[in-house]
Amino acid sequence: MESGLLAPEIALVARSKALEARIRRLDPAHPLNRCVNSPSPKARLIYRSYRALSPSEEIDPIQDAPWDRGFNRQARLIEVAGPDPGGDKSSFKAKFLEFLAVVPSTDLVVFTDGSRLDDKSTGGGVCLTRGGAILNTKIFSFGRVLEIYDAEARAALHGLELALDSPFWSSARKCWICLDNLEATLQLTYRSCGTSQETFNKVNELAQLYPGKIQTRWCPSHIGILGNEIADKVVGRVVRLPSPEPSPLLCTATLKREVKETGIALAKKLWGTTLPALYKDLGLYTWSSKPKSLQLPREVLDRLIAARSGHGDFTAYHLRYFHFDSLLELGNCKCKKAKTQFHLLFCKLANNKDPKLLAKAKKNPQLLFGHHCEKLFSLVYFKTEFYTKICL
Ligand SMILES: [Zn+2]
């Protein structure tokens, strides 16, 4: 638990799942893909495990050669956001307002926004405008199958479809799709070789169908741009709705995250069943892959783990394992009391150094040895010098 490492059997399962998720991102003709789709007796295990993965989108990572994609990041950045104005958010706002001011009143401007809640459900909001007037707003729920980047792209596609259905489409010279996610804006009109390939390819097809008409623009979020604020506001209402999307397929990015979380979920489950009684008393119920205690200096962490686990220079520990030589050699604390796991709390010499510091922890040892105890434990360690000068 203190190391944040997965148990070996769980780590193996996690690696195996990660490999299977990677196979979903290989081209259909790849030998591994053929192996999991038409299994030989030798590949039966990986076939079964692969089939147990959540259904996800099928992508073709080699549909386009990189040199055929025609994507130049620097040029594209200037295209969607203009030259960097520097400064704070207000300068980006001013630049975007300048852009809006020169957009002809007959052009369509679609503001779109994707959002994700803590429960991983996503949604999209769209606000279609023309000449500063709001023509339509729409909300979409995508369920738990997308990441925020994918939700932004999907919302942009729906926004574009809304503009296509508008009676003003034919009279518009251009249709500007304004997203507040810079990466999604950069990639939007290009074919994708990764996550949400179908969505990006659809936008690309429409852009090819109307050459030069569909343009993308990055709109910085939360700077008071009306259309963006409305899209942001409506999406906040939709993410809790059930998903109307017909396909429950996960996007590639969500599958990758889900697989990554498999190991952590299994580790938490295992910890819940193997939790030592003393850890329960200290409230250490939750397993974490990145325990904060690992940030403590090595000598402090050593004492904290010894106090929690009971494996250290304690009288009971030496007696349990018949370390009679150690008992004679190391002896008791300088206050003449036996060394116990939580003796720090009750040692007179340590308390004399700063009586107030340990007062609360005496009533509730979780404060000094439980979750989020790192700051207090480190303070006590250095202030009382208990472990370095008193109880050696
Ligand atoms: Zn003592």
From TrEMBL:
Protein source organism: Hymenoscyphus albidus
Name of protein: RNase H type-1 domain-containing protein
GO MF annotations, alphabetized: nucleic acid binding; RNA-DNA hybrid ribonuclease activity
Domain RNase H type-1: 104-240
Pfam families referenced in this protein's UniProt entry, alphabetically: RNase_H
Positions in coiled-coil regions: none
Top-level taxonomic group: Eukaryota
